[in-house]
Amino acid sequence: MKSLSxxxxxxxxxxxxxxxxxxxxxxxxxxxxxxxxxxxxxxCFVSLDPRNTNNLIYRSFLFDDSGLFMIFNSLxxxxxxxxxxxxxxxxxxxxxxxxxxxxxxxxQRLSVKTPSGKIFVFNTxxxxxxSASNSxxxxxxxxxxxxKGGIEFLxxxxxxxxxxxxxxxxxxxxxxxxxxxxxxxxxxxxxxxSDVFRYxxxxxxxxxxxxxxxxxxxxxxxxxxxx
Length: 227
Known about the structure:
- It is a single chain.
- The protein has 227 residues and is mainly beta.
- Helices cover 11% and strands 45% of the residues.
- Strand 10 and strand 11 form a beta hairpin.
- The longest helix is centred in the C-terminal third of the chain and has 11 residues.
Protein backbone atom coordinates (compact mmCIF):
# COMPACT_ATOMS: atom_id res chain seq x y z
CA MET A 1 0.00 0.00 0.00
CA LYS A 2 1.33 3.42 -0.88
CA SER A 3 2.11 5.67 2.04
CA LEU A 4 1.98 8.76 -0.19
CA SER A 5 -1.61 9.72 -0.87
CA UNK A 6 -3.65 12.86 -1.42
CA UNK A 7 -3.83 13.23 2.38
CA UNK A 8 -0.04 13.15 2.55
CA UNK A 9 0.12 15.83 -0.15
CA UNK A 10 -2.44 17.83 1.84
CA UNK A 11 -0.02 18.52 4.66
CA UNK A 12 2.79 19.47 2.28
CA UNK A 13 0.80 22.39 0.92
CA UNK A 14 -0.63 24.73 3.53
CA UNK A 15 -2.51 27.94 3.05
CA UNK A 16 -2.43 31.55 4.09
CA UNK A 17 -4.49 31.87 7.28
CA UNK A 18 -8.22 32.15 6.60
CA UNK A 19 -11.15 31.98 9.00
CA UNK A 20 -13.21 28.81 8.48
CA UNK A 21 -16.21 29.10 10.82
CA UNK A 22 -18.35 26.51 9.00
CA UNK A 23 -15.66 23.90 8.33
CA UNK A 24 -16.17 20.62 10.20
CA UNK A 25 -14.46 17.27 9.92
CA UNK A 26 -16.75 14.86 8.10
CA UNK A 27 -16.78 12.00 5.61
CA UNK A 28 -19.57 11.35 3.11
CA UNK A 29 -20.09 9.00 0.17
CA UNK A 30 -22.02 9.97 -2.95
CA UNK A 31 -22.38 7.07 -5.37
CA UNK A 32 -18.76 6.18 -6.33
CA UNK A 33 -17.20 9.34 -4.90
CA UNK A 34 -16.01 9.74 -1.29
CA UNK A 35 -15.86 13.31 0.03
CA UNK A 36 -13.91 14.24 3.14
CA UNK A 37 -13.77 17.64 4.83
CA UNK A 38 -10.76 18.21 7.06
CA UNK A 39 -10.19 21.10 9.43
CA UNK A 40 -6.45 21.44 10.09
CA UNK A 41 -5.68 24.40 12.31
CA UNK A 42 -7.35 27.33 10.54
CA UNK A 43 -7.29 25.62 7.13
CA CYS A 44 -10.24 23.82 5.55
CA PHE A 45 -9.63 21.07 3.00
CA VAL A 46 -12.10 19.09 0.89
CA SER A 47 -10.82 15.93 -0.78
CA LEU A 48 -12.65 13.87 -3.40
CA ASP A 49 -11.59 10.27 -3.90
CA PRO A 50 -12.99 7.47 -6.07
CA ARG A 51 -14.27 4.45 -4.15
CA ASN A 52 -12.84 2.13 -6.80
CA THR A 53 -9.05 2.21 -6.64
CA ASN A 54 -8.34 -1.14 -8.32
CA ASN A 55 -4.67 -1.61 -9.25
CA LEU A 56 -3.96 1.73 -7.50
CA ILE A 57 -4.61 3.61 -10.73
CA TYR A 58 -6.93 6.53 -10.04
CA ARG A 59 -7.28 10.30 -9.80
CA SER A 60 -8.27 12.26 -6.68
CA PHE A 61 -8.92 15.95 -6.10
CA LEU A 62 -8.23 18.41 -3.30
CA PHE A 63 -9.50 21.94 -2.62
CA ASP A 64 -8.67 24.36 0.18
CA ASP A 65 -9.43 27.87 1.41
CA SER A 66 -6.28 29.37 -0.08
CA GLY A 67 -7.62 28.78 -3.61
CA LEU A 68 -5.80 25.49 -4.20
CA PHE A 69 -7.11 22.92 -6.69
CA MET A 70 -4.89 19.81 -6.67
CA ILE A 71 -5.18 16.82 -8.99
CA PHE A 72 -3.54 13.79 -7.40
CA ASN A 73 -2.63 10.86 -9.63
CA SER A 74 -1.97 7.34 -8.39
CA LEU A 75 -0.22 5.53 -11.23
CA UNK A 76 -0.21 1.96 -9.92
CA UNK A 77 2.18 -0.14 -7.88
CA UNK A 78 5.82 0.80 -7.73
CA UNK A 79 8.17 3.25 -6.02
CA UNK A 80 6.54 6.53 -5.08
CA UNK A 81 9.01 8.43 -7.26
CA UNK A 82 7.32 6.83 -10.27
CA UNK A 83 3.79 5.98 -9.15
CA UNK A 84 2.39 9.17 -7.60
CA UNK A 85 2.15 12.71 -8.90
CA UNK A 86 0.22 15.94 -8.59
CA UNK A 87 -0.86 18.97 -10.59
CA UNK A 88 -1.71 22.18 -8.74
CA UNK A 89 -3.63 25.34 -9.57
CA UNK A 90 -4.61 28.38 -7.49
CA UNK A 91 -7.56 30.60 -8.44
CA UNK A 92 -8.02 34.27 -7.51
CA UNK A 93 -9.42 36.43 -6.06
CA UNK A 94 -10.59 34.42 -3.07
CA UNK A 95 -13.83 36.30 -2.41
CA UNK A 96 -16.03 33.52 -1.04
CA UNK A 97 -13.35 32.61 1.51
CA UNK A 98 -14.60 29.10 2.28
CA UNK A 99 -14.74 25.97 0.13
CA UNK A 100 -18.08 24.13 0.13
CA UNK A 101 -19.97 21.50 -1.85
CA UNK A 102 -23.48 20.38 -2.78
CA UNK A 103 -24.77 17.07 -4.11
CA UNK A 104 -27.62 16.64 -6.60
CA UNK A 105 -28.80 13.02 -6.47
CA UNK A 106 -31.02 12.95 -9.60
CA UNK A 107 -28.18 14.10 -11.85
CA GLN A 108 -25.42 12.34 -9.86
CA ARG A 109 -23.45 15.56 -9.76
CA LEU A 110 -21.39 17.05 -6.95
CA SER A 111 -20.59 20.78 -7.19
CA VAL A 112 -17.63 22.22 -5.29
CA LYS A 113 -17.66 25.99 -4.82
CA THR A 114 -14.15 27.35 -4.36
CA PRO A 115 -12.96 30.54 -2.60
CA SER A 116 -12.78 32.33 -5.98
CA GLY A 117 -16.43 31.49 -6.64
CA LYS A 118 -15.51 29.01 -9.38
CA ILE A 119 -17.67 25.89 -9.31
CA PHE A 120 -16.22 22.49 -10.19
CA VAL A 121 -18.75 19.81 -11.16
CA PHE A 122 -18.05 16.09 -10.73
CA ASN A 123 -19.88 13.03 -12.02
CA THR A 124 -20.28 11.01 -8.82
CA UNK A 125 -21.01 7.70 -10.56
CA UNK A 126 -17.78 7.86 -12.57
CA UNK A 127 -15.84 9.91 -9.97
CA UNK A 128 -14.56 12.31 -12.62
CA UNK A 129 -14.43 16.07 -13.16
CA UNK A 130 -16.77 17.20 -15.93
CA SER A 131 -16.66 21.01 -15.87
CA ALA A 132 -15.53 24.20 -14.15
CA SER A 133 -17.61 27.37 -14.34
CA ASN A 134 -16.43 30.10 -16.73
CA SER A 135 -13.56 27.90 -17.89
CA UNK A 136 -12.77 25.82 -20.95
CA UNK A 137 -11.12 22.55 -19.96
CA UNK A 138 -9.21 19.86 -21.82
CA UNK A 139 -9.59 16.63 -19.84
CA UNK A 140 -7.78 13.37 -20.51
CA UNK A 141 -9.49 10.71 -18.42
CA UNK A 142 -6.63 8.26 -18.88
CA UNK A 143 -4.58 8.28 -15.69
CA UNK A 144 -0.90 8.19 -16.61
CA UNK A 145 2.29 10.07 -15.84
CA UNK A 146 2.65 11.67 -19.26
CA UNK A 147 -0.42 13.93 -19.46
CA LYS A 148 0.54 16.35 -16.67
CA GLY A 149 -2.32 15.35 -14.40
CA GLY A 150 -4.85 15.11 -17.23
CA ILE A 151 -6.53 18.50 -16.80
CA GLU A 152 -5.67 21.73 -18.62
CA PHE A 153 -7.36 25.13 -18.44
CA LEU A 154 -7.55 26.42 -22.02
CA UNK A 155 -9.53 29.50 -21.00
CA UNK A 156 -10.45 30.98 -17.64
CA UNK A 157 -12.40 34.05 -16.58
CA UNK A 158 -9.85 35.34 -14.08
CA UNK A 159 -6.39 35.15 -12.63
CA UNK A 160 -4.91 31.77 -11.78
CA UNK A 161 -1.58 30.18 -10.96
CA UNK A 162 -0.47 26.98 -12.70
CA UNK A 163 2.24 25.13 -10.79
CA UNK A 164 2.44 22.28 -13.28
CA UNK A 165 2.82 18.55 -12.59
CA UNK A 166 5.48 16.70 -10.63
CA UNK A 167 6.02 13.09 -9.64
CA UNK A 168 6.34 12.02 -5.99
CA UNK A 169 5.77 15.48 -4.48
CA UNK A 170 3.63 18.55 -4.56
CA UNK A 171 4.69 21.01 -7.33
CA UNK A 172 4.88 23.75 -4.70
CA UNK A 173 7.51 21.92 -2.63
CA UNK A 174 10.52 22.97 -4.71
CA UNK A 175 11.30 26.64 -3.92
CA UNK A 176 13.21 27.07 -7.21
CA UNK A 177 10.53 25.60 -9.45
CA UNK A 178 9.16 28.03 -12.05
CA UNK A 179 5.38 28.48 -12.03
CA UNK A 180 3.04 30.53 -14.21
CA UNK A 181 0.38 33.13 -13.49
CA UNK A 182 -2.23 33.58 -16.24
CA UNK A 183 -5.00 36.16 -16.59
CA UNK A 184 -8.35 36.05 -18.42
CA UNK A 185 -6.65 37.13 -21.64
CA UNK A 186 -4.12 34.29 -21.36
CA UNK A 187 -1.27 36.70 -20.70
CA UNK A 188 1.30 34.84 -18.62
CA UNK A 189 4.07 35.60 -16.17
CA UNK A 190 6.64 33.15 -14.81
CA UNK A 191 7.85 33.40 -11.21
CA UNK A 192 9.51 31.04 -8.75
CA UNK A 193 7.67 29.17 -6.03
CA SER A 194 9.80 31.04 -3.50
CA ASP A 195 8.29 34.30 -4.76
CA VAL A 196 4.79 33.34 -3.59
CA PHE A 197 5.32 30.59 -1.01
CA ARG A 198 7.19 30.56 2.26
CA TYR A 199 8.60 27.30 3.58
CA UNK A 200 8.66 25.71 7.01
CA UNK A 201 11.65 23.78 8.35
CA UNK A 202 9.88 20.64 7.07
CA UNK A 203 9.60 22.18 3.58
CA UNK A 204 5.84 22.59 3.79
CA UNK A 205 4.80 25.27 1.31
CA UNK A 206 2.56 28.07 2.60
CA UNK A 207 1.01 30.56 0.17
CA UNK A 208 2.15 33.81 1.71
CA UNK A 209 -0.12 36.51 0.25
CA UNK A 210 -3.69 37.55 0.81
CA UNK A 211 -5.42 39.03 -2.26
CA UNK A 212 -4.37 42.64 -1.61
CA UNK A 213 -0.75 41.63 -1.06
CA UNK A 214 -0.78 39.39 -4.13
CA UNK A 215 -2.10 42.18 -6.36
CA UNK A 216 0.67 44.48 -5.14
CA UNK A 217 3.30 41.81 -5.80
CA UNK A 218 2.00 41.08 -9.31
CA UNK A 219 1.82 44.75 -10.27
CA UNK A 220 5.57 44.89 -9.74
CA UNK A 221 6.62 41.42 -10.86
CA UNK A 222 4.10 40.89 -13.68
CA UNK A 223 2.92 44.22 -15.13
CA UNK A 224 1.67 42.47 -18.29
CA UNK A 225 -1.13 40.73 -16.36
CA UNK A 226 -4.68 42.09 -16.29
CA UNK A 227 -5.59 42.17 -12.59
